[in-house]
Specification:
By secondary structure, the protein is α/β, with parallel strands linked by helices. The chain is built from twelve helices and eleven strands. The strands form three sheets. Strands 2-1-3-4-5-9 form a six-stranded parallel beta sheet, sandwiched between helices. Strands 6-8-10 form a three-stranded mixed beta sheet. The chain has a two-stranded parallel sheet with strand order 7-11.
Length: about 375
């Protein structure tokens, strides 16, 4: 099952797609990719929260006016206008440290935002498939050395992780209560749990790669909080290719069999420590790039996290195409090219083209 995402594929050509959170890092990459595949993409999102912003660099101000997923009436109006066939729900408060600072905003966005979307879809008959994007942090993390499977219980120590576990429970409840086969609704809903995503165009605060790039770009050491923490790192195009494939399967005649939870993560050997990531990026960046251990107290974060994507490999034919070192090199290359004045759209398009030409190294 190689070359699953192909620009010539007829499935996406002219298909109406709505992406919530389309102005964010992952949302911008997905919006750009689907438009290149020929989809008619509309968005539901707040204004970009960083400056610079990948969305603005690639699309300008075309998303205005912006819409808050916490406003049920606004969500209803947006979906009624867009009449989407496929929905990717990515709108979220996505930062662990921000969830400690403002747990109410985190739960309102990540939990009730998901409720608002699914409640609105109940009122529509145009939607064929929904991919609800949550997080690898939705699991009840026991600090195990092995990877979590989709059947593991939900949990979360911090408000962000907990809110993503709650979003999974909301998705399951709505799917069982209102979108089961007996309901007569032909709308299939799945959730997607990706690993820690890296890639060019992310400028979020308190996120490893953007923090590294900001520091390296200013010729100062980056402060690292937990150098020994293990995470399932993957390039942004890896899970996005999984979301795209999952949506295609959900919209197929056998779509009901795919309406469940899915992990999209790297192979075990690409789950590495924070120090591994920063050391590799420092080497790739050059110019004396380095890091130091922060002396500031930090809130709790899991020390060890992996997800098992064997189900996606077996049933969706999805597989990683970039090894971790390649993903890091592509990330550094993107930022370097952008700092050197190359247009963000051209860099992004080039990396998507190169990614589509790759075969999965997992069989």
């Amino acid at each position: 099952m190689e070359g699953l995402v192909n620009p010539a594929r007829a499935f996406w050509n002219g298909r109406k797609v709505l992406i919530t959170g389309h102005t964010g890092f992952k949302g911008s990459w997905l919006t750009f990719w689907l438009k290149r595949l020929g989809a008619e993409v509309s968005g539901l999102s707040l204004a970009p929260h960083t400056e610079p912003s990948l969305f603005k660099l690639v699309f300008g101000e075309e998303a205005a006016p912006y819409i808050d997923i916490r406003d049920l009436n606004a969500v209803r109006a947006a979906l009624a206008s867009a009449k989407p066939q496929i929905i990717f729900h990515m709108a979220a408060q996505s930062l662990v440290h921000q969830s400690y600072r403002d747990p109410v905003e985190t739960y309102a966005t990540n939990v009730m935002g998901t409720v608002h979307l699914l409640e609105t879809v109940r009122e529509l008959d145009c939607v064929e498939a929904i991919v609800i994007v949550t997080s690898d942090k939705c699991y009840d993390n026991k600090e195990w050395l092995w990877a979590y499977r989709e059947s593991e219980p939900m949990g979360g120590h911090d408000p962000y992780s907990s809110s993503k576990g709650c979003a999974e429970l909301v998705t399951s409840a709505y799917r069982s209560s209102f979108f089961a086969a007996s309901s007569g609704r032909i709308c299939h809903i799945a959730s997607a749990r990706a690993g820690n995503v890296i890639g060019g165009g992310d400028w979020s605060e308190d996120r490893l790669i953007p923090d590294i790039i900001r520091s390296f770009g200013q010729s100062r050491p980056v402060e690292i909080r937990r150098p020994h923490s293990i995470r399932p790192w993957q390039h942004v195009l890896e899970p996005l290719s999984g979301y795209i494939r999952l949506a295609e399967c959900l919209a197929s005649e056998d779509g009901a069999s795919f309406a469940e939870a899915w992990n999209f993560g790297p192979p075990d050997e690409d789950c590495q420590s924070v120090s591994y990531i920063v050391d590799k990026l420092a080497l790739s960046w050059g110019d004396g790039a380095s890091w130091i251990l922060t002396e500031r107290p930090q809130p709790h974060e899991a020390a060890h996290l992996k997800v098992d994507a064997s189900k996606a490999r077996a049933r969706l034919g999805w597989g990683s195409r970039l090894r971790l070192d390649e993903a890091l090199a592509w990330s550094a290359e993107w930022y370097r090219a952008q700092l050197d004045g190359k247009a963000a759209a051209a860099i992004t398009a080039d990396q998507i083209d190169r990614y589509e030409a790759l075969r999965s190294f997992i069989h």
